Amino acid sequence: MTEQTTVPPPVPDGAAPAGAAPTEEEPTGRLARLARLQALQIIIVLAVIVVIFSILKPSAFLTVFNIRGIVQNTAILAVLAVGMTFVIITGGIDLSIGSVLVFSGVVADKVMANVGGGQGWGSAIIGLLVAIGCGLAWGLLNGFLVARAKVPPLIVTLGTLGMALGLAEVITGGVDLRNVPTVMVNSVGFGNIVGEIPWLAVIAAVIVVLGIVLLHRTRFGLHTYAIGSNPEAGRRAGVNVPRHLVMIYALCGLLAGFAGWLNLAFFQSTTIGGQTSTNLSVIAGVVIGGTSLFGGYGSILGSVIGVFIPATLQNGFVIIGVQPFWQQVVVGAVLIAAVYVDQQRRAAALRGGNPRMSGLLRHLTTSREAAGAEAAAGRELPRDDSGQGARYGLWPPVVPSAEGAA
Question: What is the CA radius of gyration of the chain?
């Protein structure tokens, strides 16, 4: 008996193996691949909205001042949308972000008022650290109750929504605080980095880029998709699901705390009564941007574009003289349509599709089970030829082998 190793011929990138039937994930060309990008579809929707308002009021809508206002109004929501995208991809939800934003801003305002006379960058930086710490604490509480205590995320975050907002009102007596350093308002809130590009938008863009890298280029992001696609399969593939969920909710809370500091800089106030619908606006934007409420699918870019749609609608309605309340009607209709499309896409995948993440989880699980069986039998471990393990660091890459009889 001898062992023979057979190495299959290399397959060019983008080409299907010989004899393989085309699947739903093998587009026929570049245009087909672009059409399948959810973010592109949302960009088209946003572009159509911009074109319509530009035609109706070209002298008022497409101005530097108006575009700058839309970007500033959306920047804080974009920061919140990054954290919410991670949460929803895991199949969870966080209703508390608006209240955590308010609580973090209130505590930061109180601290800044008593440090350095309430002025200067030293006071502002301390306020930033305090706001992030408060948001992180609420996020850890949410994550622990969801992942360890096994309380449904809807109930947990609904409870912490009331707790955070109630504590903020207890601290302030229900009155907004305005102890914001002038340098923080003039630079972060209304300052421009160059020309008419506001600092607020640049800071939000940095957070968005970091979120994209974390979600799409790291093991942390891969594990996030794995948990949303199938938590049990992710656990069997070696993912510590409870710990990862705690980290996800902690990240969302941290970004909510950071958004609370940005909110102070922009509004020069804690806006206790102005954040009641922030959580719903962010969730609507994330879902409209293509992130599935059922978990396992989504992107940061799509979420950011999704939060721009309600802001652009509201701004456009004001300019053309339509009551801005119609924005809520339109966004609600688009949200329902987005969830319906998501349901149809998932149903089609279950009928005959081959979702990428489900295939990866299936490969991870079967590879680990086969490795365990081979090790128990005292034989050489089977070898992985997919390259996915080397890319994500989940297992060592090795060369495919097969046993044969001499």
Answer: 24
